[in-house]
Amino acid sequence: MKIRTLTCFLDPQQAPFTETLNHLAAFANQASILLQQAGFILQTRRLATTPYPFWLGSKSLAEAVTLVKEWEKQAESAGFAYLSLGCAMPSRPETYDWISPLLAATRNIFVTGLLTTPQREADLQAVRHSAQAILLNAPLEANGFANLRFAALANVPPGCPFLPAAYHQPARPPSYALGFECADTILRIFQQAETLSAARQNLIIELETTASRISEILAPLEKSYDVQFYGFDFSTAPYPQDWCSAGAALEQLGIPSLGGHGSLAAAAFLADTLDRGKWKRAGFNGLMLPVLEDSRLALRSSQGSLTIKDLLLYSAVCGTGLDTVPLPENCPQESIVALLLDLAVLSLRLDKPLTARLMPMPGKKAGDPLAFDFEFFSSGNVMALDTSHLSGLLADSRVIDIHSR
Questions:
Q1: How many domains does the chain have?
Q2: pTM for the structure as a whole
Q3: Which residue, among 159, 205, 152, has the nearest Cα to 178 in the 3D structure?
Q4: Mean pLDDT for the chain?
């Protein structure tokens, strides 16, 4: 198990960006040293702000791009590999138009778009803007990689350490959170267990022990730097080899091939196990199934046994949503709209955070093979998306009000 990210959070409206950045960089440096001395591997340090509509205010797009590029440079110099600017918001619909230009002008900037409102509504205009952004982002980089830096968010609270979903709560002091790459630990424990009960209990013990050790290490540092802790996110982040695959961990429970019947039971078991652990929580702490980042998921999707509808179904028992899903280049915008709306209402009905990081692949159609010169992606195939579109009452609605169960 590795710490995938130590993510620091700041509000540029509370104090000058550079001043808070330097303070958080000093904190992150000391935290990194202490964690490494204790035997933990920290892969990246990342930074996230409050949603950019708050602090960009009345700036023009050109002014915003200039400012963001400067902040990107400062963050990198301070030791933060990536900077998340938070989310475009339904209350500021024009800010969705800034997503693609901000990504085009940068290389380490992440942004998101909210699909839902604080009033527990799925906002159809925001859904359509987010779908449009996905298509506009696709040709910005080879292999559609600009969409790695964008996600549509549904019902996601502040404080998630994983990018792109990370953003800070306005007016909250500087904070941090930790996200883990723990698919290898889950797979190992499932391989060694003789019963489901043992698998569950052993995984909970390992994660609780890790959280307790890290809390003891970093608590004094939080106090001395006056930095608040959002919490731990033990979502099942993988690495694209079978030894660190969340898909392989699920199949280890007894599924011949992920996507077949029994997969939902395995997903529910793992998600329920994570729910039972006792640690301070931030982000998802759920089943993370990023197709292209997980070798077994990429394999099953290329074989046709794992579909987008399957991934959405597993999200219903506590996933993080749809992540690094490769789509055809000519995927209709209305099909993406329908998919994002499904995700949004699922998040509201079940009162859970979900995201969609969808990646139309330039020059590719459904079923085409994919190969990447990128350490964190596995080879796979473009996944098919139903060519459906909304009409009637759904299409004519401005918002859909959904109460949780």
A1: 1
A2: 0.96
A3: 159
A4: 96
